[in-house]
Structures are given as C-alpha cells and as structure tokens.
Amino acid sequence: MAETLTITDNRTGRQYEVPIQDGTIKATDLRQIKVAPDEFGLMTYDPAFMNTANCKSRITYIDGDKGVLLYRGYPIEQLAEQSDFLETASLILSGELPLQKQHDDWTRQVTLHTMLHTNIAKLMEGFRHDAHPMGMFISTVGALSTFYPDAKEIFSPESRRLQTIRLIAKLPSIAAYAFRHSIGRPFNQPDNDLTYAGNFLSMLFRMTELKYQPNPVLERAMEVLFILHADHEQNCSTTTMRTIGSSHADPYSALAGAAAALYGPLHGGANEAVLRMLHEIGSINHIPAFIKRVKAGEGRLMGFGHRVYKSYDPRAKIIKKMADLVFDATGKNPLLEMALELERIALEDEYFVSRKLYPNVDFYSGLIYQAMGFPVDMFPVLFAIPRTAGWIAQWEEMLNDPDQKIARPRQIYLGSGPRNYVPREKRK
Ligand code: CMC
To answer: How close is the Cα of 355 to the center of ligand 1, in Å?
Structure first.
C-alpha cells in the first residue's frame, strides 16, 4: 500500500491524503489545502532550506549522524586512499569508475586543455597587486564564458563534455596565475609531463629551474585534499550552481556564481577564517578565554560545526591523519598545537557537545595548506578547484532532470498594502 500522510485542516474539518515518496512529501501537494477557492494554497516556510530537498540526486550521499560520505556509492576513505583526483572527478561526473582506456583518454584530454588564452593572462594582469586571489578566480571563471560562447549550447552533450574538460583543466591554471600575480612573479606555463596535482604545484612554485620536481608527499597530499573537496551534495555553492544553471545560463557563468558562494567564511572561506582565528588567539594560554567568548555568542569557533554532520566530519579525520605526513616533509606548523588543544577543549565542553559541533573539513586543511607554502587567501581557491567536478556533475544532473524548472521560491509578503504615491514635497 502506498504510504500517505493524512492532514486534517482544523479550519474546515477537511482531510487531505498526501503521498509520501522517498521519505518526503511534495510541497506542491499542500497547495490543494485552501480555505477559499481563489487562495494560492498552503505553502511551506523554510528559510535556508533547513528541511527541504531541492532535487533528487545520485551523486553524493552523506549520513551526517554516522559521519559517512560516499561519492557514487564509494566511501571517501577508500577514494582518498586509492584513487587520484582525475579518476574521482571522472567517477563523480560519469557515475562509474573509469576503465583504463577511459581514464587515459580523460587524463589526456584534460592535460591538453590546461593552457590559458593569452588574453586571459592579460585580463588577470589587470588586477591590483593586492587583489584577493579568490576575487580574481571568480571574475576570470566568469570571463571564460566570453572566450567559449559555444558553452551556451547547454543541451548538447558534446558541448557540455568540452566545457567540462576545459573547466577541470583550466581552473588550476587560473588559480596558479592568481597566486603568481599576488606574489609578483611571472606566470608559469603548464607542464604536461606532470600529474594534475604535480602540474598545479609546478605552475604555483616553479622558479628558475628548467624542470620542477614536485615533492611526492606534497603532490599526494594535494591529490587527497582535492578528492576530499570534490563534492558535498546540496551545499550553498552547489545550490547556487544549480540555481543559476536552472535559468539556462552557460556553465562558466554558473560556476563563477558557485565560486562566489563558496568564498564566504561560513562555507569555503572557513579554512581561511580558521587560520586567521588561530593567529588572533595567539597562544594556547588564550584558548579558554577565546572559548568563553564563543560560548557567549561573541564569534564562532571556525572550522567547527556543519549543517549536515552531527558527528566528526569524515574528511576532517582523513586530513588530520595526513597532516602528520605533510608536516614530516615540511616541518610542523606552529599553529597545530593550538588547533589540537582547541579541539580537545571543545570536544569536552558541554556547549559544543550538546550542539553536536565537531571539527569539519576546514579545521585542519588550512594548517596543511600553510605548511605547503600557500598564503591564507589562496585557501578558498584551493577548495574551488576540486569542487568544480561536483558543481558540473550537479549542474548536468539538474539539466537532465525532468522535474527541474527555473528555481523560483515563493515568499511570505509582510510589507505594506497598496498605497498612493506621495510627491516628494508633500512627504512628512
Ligand atoms: N562555533 C560556535 N557555535 C556554533 C558554531 C561554531 N562554529 N556553529 C554552530 N554553532 C552554534 C550556533 O550558535 C547555534 O547555537 P544556538 O542553538 O544556541 O543558537 C547552534 O550551534 C546551531 O548553529 P546554526 O548556525 O543553526 O547551524 P547551521 O547549520 O545553520 O550552520 C555552519 C552550520 C557550518 C554555518 C556553522 O556551524 C558555522 O558557522 N561554522 C563555522 C564556519 C565553518 O567552519 N564553516 C565550514 C563548514 S564545512 C565546509 C563547507 O562545507 O563549506
């Protein structure tokens, strides 16, 4: 028997049967509940989508209570251990782990598209010397739509495939250009002999040497960090990608919007905010006073808490383990001890325990990035590069979903009723 929910309207005494499917009722099924025939019908009020499924998806699964994260069914721990970013991106985008030939072809295609048009480099040179790399990144990704007008053919699978390759290939180059601009160094061209992560490190850090040899520990750490950040279902930036994409804008414009959503300190900007917070705290002795301020509502413990995870973020666990390997290669980040002590105190404190606030992916990632030589303002950019795989996969899923339409929420209007315009000289 089909599952239904019976709703009794106490105003009219009428009963309504609303079907339950996949543990969900359709908000539009509530529209039949009205007192007067010309009424719009009952709406749901859900600011920040706290309890609203915006789509059906087959990409990423999270069990927030158990701390489980799966990409297309594969546990994040196994992918972080055994996969590399390009393979994981291919999995997220296509739904299956690629066969060897598919993997070779995908890797080759991405490698062939890493170069940027010289006018993109010129565009980026125009930014102020102290421009935030994420601001440069967002603007340049948006500008890509003017270089590839064929991207408007969003219903052509071939066009989507080409834009996907371009985006996965070119975003590390844009990120590296932004970094080099901010430190006043010439841009490094991509090196096609290197891996995805190795080439990225080369574009960032190569100085005068003819051939850059990435440190294998840091190269692997970069791959793992990219895998951990590749998708995270319907978060703020992915919802933005889907929302902009729902108006049939091209993927570059939609992705620039998604990256802008990621920039904020409550989302992908949190790793930057964690480092700034640790610097502000300054020493282990100041931690109790800092925790006291957080509990009094004067600021947040950045890198803690999550809308979905109500236990330890599985990505944070992997990053914490990896930090030891990175610090063996780079030397310890002096802020690590402070982070560990903050975590220890917070995990024992009633305020954090009762609200189920645990370290999230951003709590330790910044310490690793800093040890690898990245300035804090590059951190959100490092998040945006791998999340591109998730954004594109979610955008394509939205375009191919017959249930989807242009995103257009309703509102509860609480403003003034109709009133007559008053000329300026008569206003009181
Ligand atoms: N420090 C102190 N208190 C917190 C924190 C925190 N980091 N996060 C949540 N709370 C408190 C909050 O004040 C509220 O308390 P009360 O019930 O007394 O009002 C309660 O916990 C619930 O918080 P909320 O704001 O309703 O939770 P949310 O689901 O809307 O917010 C969040 C989720 C991630 C925005 C939030 O936990 C936060 O601001 N964390 C710090 C920023 C951060 O680390 N963001 C990265 C998220 S992971 C990467 C990503 O996916 O983007």
So the answer is: 9
